[in-house]
Amino acid sequence: MKRFVKVIRILSATTSIALGISLGATSTYAAQQTSAKLKGDFGPPQGQPIHAVLTSPPNVPPPIHRKYPAKVIVDLEVIEKEMAISEGVKYMFWTFGGTVPGSFIRVRQGDTVEFHLKNNPNNKMPHNIDLHGVTGPGGGAASSFTAPGHESQFTFKALNEGVYVYHCATAPVGMHIGNGMYGLILVEPPEGMKRVDHEYYVMQGDFYTTGKYREKGLQPFDMDKAIDEKPTYVLFNGAEGSLTGDKALTAKTDETIRLFVGNGGPNLVSSFHVIGAIFDKVRYEGGSHSQENVQTTLIPSGGVVTVEFQTKVPGSYVLVDHSIFRAFNKGALAILKVDGPQKKDIYSGKELDSVYLGDRAQPNLASVTKATQAAASGTLTLQDQINAGRELFAGTCSVCHQSNGAGLPGVFPPLAQSDFLNSDLHRAVGIPLRGLTGKVTVNGNEFNSVMPPMTQLNDDEIANILTYVLNSFGNKGGQIGASEVKTERAKGVSAPTEAN
Ligand SMILES: [Cu+2]
């Protein structure tokens, strides 16, 4: 009998590679076998059918305390919808349940899961679902192929405990996954899992847009970049900033944390790391074996890990893909904020600061959004510009010029009461656009260094930052409009501004 289980597993593994291909014959065969004594089969479902509690990331449904196998009904709807992938950047996501990653599903080993997949009538594409926690061909893919405005149903017994990825497996599969169609299903062991203070749901994914990183507007999917495996964004929970600022994960000191961290891919393998924490325990690949005292763990595309650790020292802990350009230049960064009394005996002090995190550490960009909207509707005020400029400055310019604009002697010139800046406001417009090189004298001190062009900023953002700078730090005031930046940009941005 054991050998038979193996055969089914191999079949299911190979068929989920040949995604979408129906092997109907084996699925009835597998269904008949569940009445025999298989691992994880605790007999027929008991009690009333239960509707599964589904949660949006980063939330995880509550632990199951049930002591018997039940029939669990899962209702999941596919919704294609436009959402922000980064500040000012929209993307047409395809979702399970309206979020990326999709709704978190939690069942108990031995449960009989009646799965309902609905495809919203406003959607344009057919979709299906392959759950890696299913023993059966395609993980449900062939049985769940659903056109817009339709609903499919199939049933499976959750034989293996563990945490599993689910994803859409409709051709072109890479595109469906690349648009955000993945999530996690947890199959709890019958005795349940060890109690922890917080469980969170985080899932990495790589995204491919025709525009470059942070290029504004609605960005279409780029098939060539996807095939070349050159993502524009690498993200936790489907958007840059989805887990930072006031959306950061939270805990108190001396609490235990369990993170279910999935990787939807479609292409990249994640080197998952939490800066400043050591995982006490990792269930790698979502399997039953665990490893202790781990710094960085690999999460395959289409795989999951469960990591557990304790928050001993207060501060901000940064979740990254330690393939580190992805974290700081493609968005793969999230924050766990731990509050509580200092523990100087364990760690002396000085938290991670803004130089390390750059603009990813900002509380939020609400005032930037407000200014963008006001500019579009023609109601932009000086104060709107200053407010937006303050937040953008904190993330972009303060790294070098310091948050009080004082600069660093001999290295970064001051923007505070800068005679160079105040003597020619229009020259200043070219500086963030093209950068600045060569000798520059500010308030009698000479600097001879390089400021790189701030290519990630659009015209509105540069106008707002400069307006903020001119109205702060004892400078003489003034206002720069986006149209002026636009005119300056049109002159070309390739050669850096010469300081003299
Ligand atoms: Cu799909």
Structural description of this entry:
The chain is of the alpha/beta class. 23% of the residues lie in helices and 30% in strands. The protein has helices at residues 2-17, 24-33, 173-178, 223-227, 325-329, 354-357, 366-377, 382-396, 398-401, 419-423, 425-434, 459-470, 482-490; strands at 50-51, 71-86, 89-96, 105-108, 112-119, 130-131, 151-157, 162-167, 182-188, 198-207, 217-218, 233-236, 249-252, 255-265, 270-275, 279-283, 291-294, 296-299, 303-311, 315-321, 333-339, 436-442, 445-451, 497-498. Strands 1, 2, 3, 5, 7 and 11 form a 6-stranded mixed sheet that branches. Mean pLDDT is 88; it is low at 1-35. Bound molecules: copper (II) ion. The site of copper (II) ion (CU) has 6 residues, from loops.
List keywords for this structure.
500 residues; 6-stranded mixed beta sheet; 13 helices; 24 strands; binds copper (II) ion
Fold blueprint:
Blueprint lengths: L1 H16 L6 H10 L16 E2 L19 E16 L2 E8 L8 E4 L3 E8 L10 E2 L19 E7 L4 E6 L5 H6 L3 E7 L9 E10 L9 E2 L4 H5 L5 E4 L12 E4 L2 E11 L4 E6 L3 E5 L7 E4 L1 E4 L3 E9 L3 E7 L3 H5 L3 E7 L14 H4 L8 H12 L4 H15 L1 H4 L17 H5 L1 H10 L1 E7 L2 E7 L7 H12 L11 H9 L6 E2 L2
Parallel strand pairs: 1-2, 2-5, 3-11, 4-9, 10-14, 13-21, 22-24
Antiparallel strand pairs: 2-3, 5-7, 6-8, 8-9, 10-12, 14-19, 15-18, 15-20, 16-17, 16-19, 20-21, 22-23
Helix pairs in contact: 7-8, 8-12, 12-13
Bound molecules: copper (II) ion.
